[in-house]
Every structure is written in structure tokens, then in C-alpha cells.
What we know:
about 400 residues, alpha+beta, 11-stranded antiparallel β-sheet, 4-stranded parallel β-sheet, 11 helices
Amino acid sequence: MRPAIVSYRLDKPDSRLTDAWIEKLLGRAYGASQRRKRIKVLVNPFGGQGGAVKTYHRLIAPILAAARCQLDVEETTHQGHGVDIARALDIDAYDVVACCSGDGIPHEVWNGLAQRPDAARALVKVAVAQLPCGSGNAASLNFNGTDNPSLAALAVVKGLRTPLDLASVSQGDRRTLSFLSQSVGIVAETDLATEHLRWMGSARFQWGFLVRLIGKTVYPADIAVKVEHDNKTAVREAYRREASKPPQSIDDRVLPAADAGLPVLKYGTIKDPLPTGWELIPHDQLGNFYAGNIAYMSADANFFPAALPSDGCLDLIRIRGDIARATSIKTLMAIESHTFFDLPHVDYRKISAYRIIPKDQKDGYISIDGERVPFEGFQVEVHKGLGTVLSKSGHLCEAKGV
């Protein structure tokens, strides 16, 4: 799929019917979506295969121009540049920050907005969208329903403002926002320890996953969680209640005050005593700890089919590391066939906060939104509807649910 331009001349351009016809056509095309969005476009020339600039000009820019969006395009020049841009952004001048990148630049933008004195207001007011130009395009898969750049551009043009939960991750003295996932164990190691296999494309994830599953690798940790739905039946019912609602045409959140910063942490940080009612339980045979905010983690990995963008929860998966090798292989295949959720050895819950402390390992891999962080304990707390994206439905991910 790629854009093309078709031009034609109206035979009666001055007819009063012409304007009415155009308005009717635009109304059918856009529905409740905002027209002529004001978009700050960030292009990461280093992401993926390094072709984001070419992809933007050839496959994305013509669609944004045809929709008469107001564009301000800037290339990122270094790691953390997205943070700097978002922190200084004039939030009254833009409706959307569109990231021509992988998932790294959206992560930076949300954290840049979070560092502002008006963080709460900025995170609601400005939608963050992804135009897929990287090796990981989960944000586009979930909200645009595609990792094709042209189709994603069309989805952004016609996207509906959608509240998105963001999660505070406290580790040491640091507090960062996560929009995608946090992982300890096999998924984190599969992602971060296979960087040298990028030439394999998405196959590197399957390879790394399979090697560690067959090797029965375990990642001992102490874990405490604030559970909201503690079994798969309850999780499925919660998803289906939301999925049965009609598309959300209006973002009815109240705009926070101009001086409203990030929400106060209800449960403190990793440095505080364990919150009342939480019990730290040893998981000596942990194989995978994976918490996700949205469904797709990659094009063929709908890990969290019950995920909802704004239900105030993370979907949590835990799998033991000492399961039989045949079961391990079945687990890997079940992800692609959309039967992963129903596997009896996959513990799936909806939670609103947790603390995890790795043990018996001096070094390892922890991934926050696909980025490596220090190998030490951390605590996570969900903030319902703190951020904003653009989506097709206004309330769901574009993924096969449960």
C-alpha cells in the first residue's frame, strides 16, 4: 500500500451545491475525528533499518498533506532528543506528536511531557501517535491496526482521541512512565540479549524465546501485586464488557489545571515499605514475568489479548521456567495462533500495581517499553487515562480479544 494522487476538475466549481457536497463527503470520511490536525512530526533517522526519512517523505507525508494537516517536521539527532522536544513543546500549538520511529521515540515523548510542570495537562491535551518506521511498532499495531506506514498515516489522520493508561515505574531514585510493557525473565532477555541478531528481523525474538524456553531458564524473584481480576474468567468478562460498548466519539475527560503535574504515587516507590495488604511471595522457578498495557508487542505477538487502553490495569502474565520442553514449544506456537491466553500453565491477571525484586542473580535483563534498565527491583503503579493516543475505535486496541 502506498499513496497516489488523483486530480480532477469540477465542471461547476461555483455552484452552491459544490460546498455542500464537499462537506457531506468530509463528514462521511472523518466522522467524529478532528480534521486538519496540527501535528508535530518527529522522524528518527537512526531507527529500524535507518530508512525513516525516506519512508516519511515517500509513504507518509503525501497523506498528511492531502488531509491538509498543519505539519512541523523535525529529525531527532540523539538518544533522549524526544524527551527534550516534548518537555519544551508548545502544547497549545499542536494536537498530535506523531513519531516516525519504533516504540522508543513515543516512550521518550511521554516521558518528556511527564517532566513538565503542567505534565497532567500536557499528557491529556496532546495525543502521541506512531507512524511505523522502526523494528518495534507496537503502538501503531495496537492503535492504527497496521505496521504499514501509509495505512498508519491514514489512521492518524482519521484517528479518535483515546485515553491511555500510563504506568509509573520507580527504580532507585528514578520515576519514569511506561506505555507499553515491563518484563523480567525470558521476554526481557529475548528482546535485549538478541540485539546482535537484528539482521534476522522479527525472527530474532522467536529464536531467543525458543532457546530459553527449551533451556528451562529460570529467573528467581520476589513478587507482590495489587490484583484487580484474579482469574481468566473475570479477565475475559471485563474485556467483553468494554468491547461491547459502541465506539467512543468524544474524549470527555476534564482538562487538568495548568499547574497540574504528575499524579502522586498512591503506593509510594520501591524505596518505601511494602504497601499495606501486599505480600511479597517468592517465585523461585519464575520463567517469565510480563506486564503489558496494550495487546500487541510485535506484529505476530498478541501477548495480551484482554488488554484495554484505559481500564486502570496492566495485564500480567507469569509462567514457570521449569515446564516441560514440549509445553514450552506449544507455548511459543500458541502466541501466533491466538490460543496463548487459554493455556493452563499461563497465569493471566489484571493488576493495578506491583513490586518485583530479582534475586540469586547479580546481573540480567529488565525491559521497560523495550529499553534496558538496571537489574534491580522496581515498583509499578497504573494511572488510569493519564495519556492520550489516537485510535480507530476510541476505546479498544486493534487486536483479536478474548
